[in-house]
Amino acid sequence: MAQLTIENFINNEHVKPSLGNYFDAFEPARGLPYAKIPDSTKDDVELAYKAAATAFPEWSKTGRPERAKVLYRIADLLESRLDEFARAESRDQGKPVELARTVDIPRAVSNFRFFAGRILHSVEEAGELPGVGFSYTQRMPIGVAGLISPWNLPLYLLTWKIAPCIACGNTAVCKPSEFTSMTAYLLCSVLKDAGLPAGVVNMVFGTGMNAGQAIVEHPRIPLISFTGGTVTGAKIIANSARYFKKLSLELGGKNANIVFEDCDFDLALKTSLRSSFANQGEICLCGSRIFVQRPIYERFLNGLVQGAKALKVGDPTKSDVNLGALVSKEHWEKVVSYIDLGVKEGGKIECGGQKPPSLADEFKNGYFLEPTVISGLTPSCRTMREEIFGPVVTVYPFDTEEEAVALANDSEYGLSCSVWTENGRRARRVAGEIQAGTVWVNTWMARDLRMPFGGMKQSGLGREGGEHSLDFYSELKTICLAD
Ligand code: NAD
């Protein structure tokens, strides 16, 4: 089959990369190249920047109701193409179609709908200043934003940036991950069909080293919203420092899952299976360190192992498949190297750890990996401290509430945590002590777009979500009027 060639999207037109270079995108389930991706350079970023800068004056002055209308139209059009987008996301990323159909794409639709509504209903601050007059705040669009996204939830995380960015009146140069360009490419036609003016959103495809870095180092792109790894986040801070850019960084995690003996056992187990292995464990919010109170430790571990063994790994298009393929060969090798490290560090592989033996011939070269549960490691081991970002979890017993909190907080990361207990007071106490941007009690991955989202420690800088997104994507100005 002929390979599809993706092109950049600048000024609402598809354009070839300036040097004419492309690289292959691989289909993770088959391990075969299936599309050509532009290897964009600084020159392509400059073209995109110019389009965005030209579109900015008019878009930034377009009233909120008009902007909201376009965002609602984008949401509707995207929703009407749900199945097509879900299939494309799955083929490109490796995840089950069903997951993309029920989570990734609907959440991308919600991103546009939510921020359309939010700018319509958000109210700025105003207050009387006795003896002087009164003060009020005004939100000013900032300019051209650089939006850089990862490969694990490609469309969902890219639209999490595009929607508030343009809702606030900015224009954008976007760079999706080089591993997953397809749904961003499809989105371009949705944006155009929805009537988004030319130049408001521009898409430059390519690598982090070339296109990504050119965005970060562009002197006239004053804000960068980045989701990706912590090491890349540090580079972005360093490379943008001299320009005093506004940065929002959503980075890695090594999230704890604390299971108390008084939990709803079946619910905790069922959800822990999901939080361990959904999207092949490639969600920054996956709970990869499971701490279980000793009286239920053996029973929980057995349940987790039995549950993991029962999960189906394989053809992502099949509706009964739970895990598809990991995103790339390099990532598969990285995850497997952590399983090997876990064994060297004294861990016991309770289940998984291998490529599934029973894959159909067409998937034999795919990047599949069995869900893997490791016990017997100590919290100082690298396997329990470093982000693996695959279908691998460690399980460890604890005795007291204080110990559980200390174990969970003993991490360089602080993205999310889930706590399982039926004791409401304990839930509030523990949630209050946990150093993480999001704590779920008796649930996981519930997303409330009105709430702040972000990480503590090396999991990120800043918060997005609700009013926090509006704060990031606009300059807040105070105006004081004398009587
Ligand atoms: P990554 O850091 O390798 O890449 C992310 C994006 O940054 C890609 O588009 C990449 O091309 C680009 N990039 C790479 N180097 C760059 C540079 N020097 N300058 C500018 N851009 C550059 O991350 P990844 O492997 O795509 O994604 C996995 C990571 O993302 C994991 O660590 C995961 O935890 C994290 N993540 C975090 C969240 C969150 O909300 N906190 C959500 C999803 C993923």
UniProtKB/TrEMBL annotation:
SUPFAM superfamilies: ALDH-like. Keywords: NAD, Oxidoreductase. The keyword Transferase does not apply. One of its GO terms (molecular function) is aldehyde dehydrogenase [NAD(P)+] activity. It comes from the Eukaryota. Gene3D superfamilies: Aldehyde Dehydrogenase, Chain A, domain 1, Aldehyde Dehydrogenase, Chain A, domain 2. The keyword tRNA-binding does not apply. The active site is at residue 250. Pfam families: Aldedh. InterPro entries: Ald_DH/histidinol_DH, Ald_DH_C, Ald_DH_CS_CYS, Ald_DH_CS_GLU, Ald_DH_N, Aldehyde_DH_dom. Residues 21-479 form the Aldehyde dehydrogenase domain. Belongs to the aldehyde dehydrogenase family. This is Aldehyde dehydrogenase 8 member A1. The gene is ALDH8A1.
